[in-house]
Design goal:
four-stranded antiparallel beta sheet; seven-stranded mixed beta sheet; globular; about 130 residues; about 50% strand
Length: about 130
């Protein structure tokens, strides 16, 4: 059974950092584009970042560019989202999702992704 599981969320002060992990189970994440999405209360789910499968091309939403970094660790079958300089508006449930293919470009659309995790809560508050 193919699953992705997120971890690493928590409560952090504004300006702080967190690293989220997305671990694959039952399949190899390297063959999949991985997207990080988030959903705040009362808001629609939005794409935060994604990484393609073959050439590891990355993409970020403008709101997180220069603060967040997505990366892969093939040996651990894990994709990370390093989040720095966190702001209260980053508060949301963060989800990772996997999409087969997308060798050179990762889709920004949530409906394109096949496997989703249960989410991890990130709260940025003083």
């Amino acid at each position: 059974q193919r699953q992705v599981v997120e971890s690493g969320g928590g409560l952090v002060h504004p300006g702080g950092s967190l690293r989220l992990s997305c671990v694959g189970s039952g399949f190899t994440l390297d063959y999949y584009a991985i997207g990080w999405f988030r959903q705040a209360p009362g808001k629609e789910r939005e794409r935060v970042s994604c990484i393609s499968s073959y050439n590891r091309s990355t993409s970020y939403d403008d709101s997180v560019k220069d603060r967040f970094t997505i990366s892969r660790d093939s040996a651990k079958n894990t994709v990370y989202l390093q989040m720095n300089k966190l702001k209260p508006e980053d508060t949301a449930v963060y989800y990772c999702a996997a999409k087969i293919g997308d060798y050179y470009y990762c889709s920004p659309y949530s409906e394109d992704y096949d496997y989703w995790g249960q989410g991890t809560q990130v709260t940025v508050s003083s």
